[in-house]
Amino acid sequence: MKVDVNQTDELWDLERPKIPPRSSLFHLEPIGIGTPYVESITSYVARLAEAHSVAVGTLIAAEIHKKFSKSDDIQQYYYPSLVKVYGQYYIKSLNGTSVKAKQFVAALNQLTLRDDLEFLTLLTWAEVLPSQELLRTDFAWCPQCYQEWRDSSKVIYSPLLWSLQSVNICLEHHRPLQSICPQCHQKFVPLWQTTRPGYCLKCDAWLGGHYSSVLQHCPNIAQSLEWDIWVASALGELLSKAVLFNSIPPRDSINKAIKLYANQLTNGNISALGRFLRVNHYKFLHWHQGSTIPIISELLKICYTLSTSVVDFLQVKVNQITLDKLAILASKTSQRRRKSSVTYSSRQDIEATRAAMQQALFEEHPPTLTQLAYRLGYKSYSPLTHISKSLATAIKKRATDYATLKRQVQGATRWLG
């Protein structure tokens, strides 16, 4: 083939090549967008720091803080930390609907050149979900999820679902989420200077493990399991559907839905609907008028009683339901609330709890009495003491001895090192 050397376009293209923009940080793929197990933004930034082989605090100070340097509400610091940049409260709200969460997502989007990080927060629902009682103040996790992910060489991360205060159980395993480290017996926040996915922030212990088979027979778990599963499923659906919304659902979605249900069930009588839903009269009127909106726990109870999903309710999709069925569901909801306040009732429940207490004495990393109580679904350790004072005393002693021994070993290791 002959080439005409006088035609430069046959030898090379003089047009400058189009080079796509480069991101300042890795274009790290978020986990689980469009699923109930979508990753939280605090988990994402921890994995991003790990991918860059730096501590979370270093990444925040060196990169993300720069995006806020001109903001009036954030002061300049020579060595900015997470607390100095965001404040203690805002660190705990980064997964939610706050202005700081929006700024944080915007900064990460710019640095990673991603456009989907808002779905790792609750920003899609900012107009319809008040911040009150929305997020946990402490980190929570499912030990069995962590263990299974590590055993199968999957990425260790923290789903956004675990950060919601209303979610008490793992949607996959139907077991209580944990919030106290089994090693150092402390709680910790979702994100800090040295956060590592799957490890305790305080003592760096691995948080994975397997649940005891005894737990399925324990009283409070058995009584509230149906409700807890429904809540986790409903909120999991809420998180998974966020990606499908082109715009944020407006605040008036809630009072519109209330009006439509009132028209269907009580001929437009708002007060009558409120009585059927067992909601305070004045509070329900404020919701109907749009002057206030229900917090997440109240919204869940309404949707459960109306036999509808939270997503459909917020989209003002009215579920067809009769007044008789509503009365049955309202009664069922009331019974569930009464049952949730029961500590234990039957001999079988007591024996199951006693068996769990006996088993705890032989665990490699013995739990404190408070940890065991939370694990079994109690709000305090008092019921355990009533069931067996001797076992409760033994559990306390073993946990104390273990903690003392661990401190001695750590001290000796530092001295030898």
TrEMBL record:
Domain of life of the source: Bacteria
Domain TniQ stretches: 30-177
Name listed for the protein in its UniProt record: TetR family transcriptional regulator
Source organism: Merismopedia glauca CCAP 1448/3
